[in-house]
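Our working data are protein records whose layout never changes between entries. The record below serves as our worked example for the rest of this section:
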Amino acid sequence: MLEVYERLGMHCHDPVAETITLNHDQRNKGRIKAMSLSGTEVRIFLERGNPLLVGEFLKTECGKVVQVEGAVEAVAHASCDDWHNFSRACYHLGNRHSKIEIGDRWLRIKPDHVLEEMVHLLGLVVSHEEAVFAPESGAYNLGRHVGGHNHN
């Protein structure tokens, strides 16, 4: 069993000893018990409120590096060719505090028939697929990604 108490960020030059695959809900927890791809139990004890990122590196108490992968899960995928309609859909989803992954005129949300109908009415085409769900982390976690500062 490996225990993790430290985050190394998105870049690490040390060899990866274990890889764990976590879905979006698991990556949002501070305390996780998971099995690595090789079958080793990995227990993670981190600060709550800072979701793990797909591709992030962690350090075990014995110095080994563990990398986080995103699990494939059910998502609703919505897209359109019109930037105005796409922007409106992102606005309205954000206004409802929905977790949303944003790409180039496409977005992903967790399946929800009410939200799917709303983005459809805004002109997006909605389909269901299996994919890694990596939504935006929110404004208060921007410093972890783009070099801003936090207010702690």
Observations:
- The chain has four helices and ten strands.
- Strands lie at 2-9, 16-22, 31-35, 41-45, 57-60, 65-70, 72-79, 101-102, 106-109, 125-132.
- The chain has two domains: 2-70, 72-139.
